[in-house]
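Exercise 7.
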Amino acid sequence: MVLGALAALLDMEHDITVVAQARDGRQALEAVRAHKPDVLITDIEMPVMSGLDAASALKGSPTRVIIVTTFARPGYLRRAMEAGALGYLLKARPARELADAVRRVHQGLRVIDPDLATEAWTEANPLTERERQVLRLTAEGASTAAVATQLNLSAGTVRNYLSEAIEKLGATNRIDALRIARDKGWL
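Solution. The predicted structure, written as tokens, is:
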């Protein structure tokens, strides 16, 4: 419903044409390859492939990326910018701001919710990429042994990464660490 509504709102603009709609990140990338749009609008959390992964895959391409999401999390904003997105808007914003953002991002300008931008740069993500990988797999229900196998590590090393993440986040256990990292948008 949101996908169709956003497309309909943008199609009403005289200078914006919606060339495709996709329900997941992989379909979005296929649509970008087929239609070569100037701007891709994506959400963060989508089936098959996240919007952050799609933005990262398009980094350096002529298609510019805007993330439109409900997640007002500084960590997500930072990750979106690192992935090459030029825009980060919250779905709660007025519809006219989206069309304006598309125009500005098309010109190569950044469009970011100002309150969120200020907050995003005040608290850096303390986790290393490997600690984030271990936490993500743990969040998916993988055992320590399964995480070790998937990441080509020993079980002891996985436990060390989990302990480091717990300590860095001031968490009481791995579940608490997952909650904190998700709430901050660091996973």
